[in-house]
Design goal:
Blueprint lengths: L2 E5 L5 H10 L10 H10 L6 E5 L2 E6 L2 E3 L7 E4 L9 E2 L2 H17 L4 E4 L12 E3 L4 E7 L5 H5 L4 H11 L4 E3 L4 H14 L7 H10 L4 E7 L5 E10 L2 E9 L2 H5 L1 H15 L4 E8 L3 H8 L4 E4 L2 E4 L16 H8 L3 H12 L4
Parallel strand pairs: 5-7, 13-14
Antiparallel strand pairs: 1-2, 2-3, 3-6, 4-5, 7-16, 8-16, 9-14, 9-15, 10-11, 11-12, 12-13
């Protein structure tokens, strides 16, 4: 039997997704549709590779080629995803897929290969290094959809905040338009000094995964939108992904209300796990998720570098971007929404 590396096409999407679903480390971010979303929504080339032996899939490796004069070139597994890296049945499949990916990188003149694995996959493999623990993910079981029972699973201090939000007469719209959710997200990231992702990316996710996304719009008692959330769900897990809000969101504890409503809704649909997603260590979002009683699970991404290449630092907390963050916060929202996608398509 011979191991063969192939490129994902429309014809083998089902086989790819079946392998991901059956793999212990498979996530929604490994789904084949992610390729088509990133290509259509961000304009990147995504050479998704899989290993096949005697007609059977033995490994998958989702890839994105990022070419940016400002932020650096890299081969990433995978862009816009909190989880990525390859999934393998054995070391032979891993090594063959890595070799094919590195060949793509070299052919494109790229000297950086970043793998966003949930856990290290290349310990002791020549040429691979760890980026260290710079972020963590937060995952916990959803034990009940009953409001009172669910409240008791939240630590006392955060529970009081949620109870307060439940008395604020907020409402949750479960059928907003993508444009409404995106508008609040765009305002929120501008206020943080960060360029916004393209709206085309959100629309591509909704189009590619019609049965695996959920939209929320939180409104004040007078009907004013104050917070929004674009979530994914797959198998037994819900993953809140793109959250936004206005400055009034804090006054109403709208985000606390929003996440609690998502927990209730997901549990009622039979979803068993709530994945709060990735946050950088010692940041506000990191502390916020811990306050809900979620324990951080360290993420240790890996990378391979060509001689003389350096891993790009794209964090907005980086000192070299401090001036840009200050300027961005002061941009008029229409200007930020026009300029942002041209930059942010390289930051996912």
């Amino acid at each position: 039997m011979t191991l063969v590396i192939k490129h994902l096409t429309d014809e083998n999407v089902a086989a790819w997704d079946a392998y991901v679903a059956g793999h212990a480390d498979g996530t929604f971010c490994h789904r084949a549709g992610w390729k088509f979303v990133v290509e259509a929504g961000a304009g990147h080339q995504c050479p998704y590779l899989y290993a096949e032996e005697d007609g059977e899939v033995k490994g998958v490796l989702p890839l994105t080629l990022r070419r940016s004069a400002l932020f650096g070139n890299a081969l990433v597994s995978s862009m816009f995803a909190v989880y990525g890296g390859g999934l393998y049945s054995n070391d032979a499949a891993r090594d063959a897929l890595d070799a094919a990916a590195w060949q793509i990188a070299e052919g494109a003149g790229i000297g950086v290969f970043e793998s966003r694995t949930m856990k290290p996959e290349h310990c002791g493999v020549d040429g691979w290094s760890s980026a260290g623990v710079k972020a963590a993910t937060f995952i916990r079981d959803l034990e009940s959809s009953d409001e009172d029972e669910l409240l008791l699973t939240i630590p006392r201090k955060q529970r009081a905040v949620v109870r307060k939000s439940l008395k604020a007469e907020l409402t949750c719209d479960w059928a907003p338009k993508v444009s409404e959710v995106y508008a609040l997200y765009a305002e929120s990231v501008r206020n943080l000094g960060t360029p916004v992702f393209p709206r085309a990316l959100f629309e591509a996710f909704a189009r590619e995964f019609p049965d695996n996304h959920l939209l929320q719009l939180i409104k004040t008692p007078d009907g004013k939108p104050v917070a929004s959330l674009f979530s994914f769900y797959d198998a037994d897990t819900v993953l809140p992904y793109y959250a936004g809000g206005t400055p009034d969101a804090r006054r109403y504890s709208a985000h606390d209300f929003m996440y609690f409503e998502l927990m209730k809704h997901a549990a009622a649909q039979g979803i068993k796990r709530f994945d709060f997603g990735r946050s950088k260590v010692d940041t506000g979002p990191y502390a916020f998720k811990k306050n809900w009683g979620f324990e951080p699970m360290p993420l240790e991404y890996e990378y391979k570098l060509a001689e003389g290449a350096e891993l790009p630092d794209l964090s907005p907390q980086s000192g070299k971007y401090a001036a840009l963050v200050k300027v961005w916060k002061r941009l008029p929202l229409p200007v930020a929404n026009w300029l942002g996608p041209m930059l942010a398509r390289h930051l996912g």
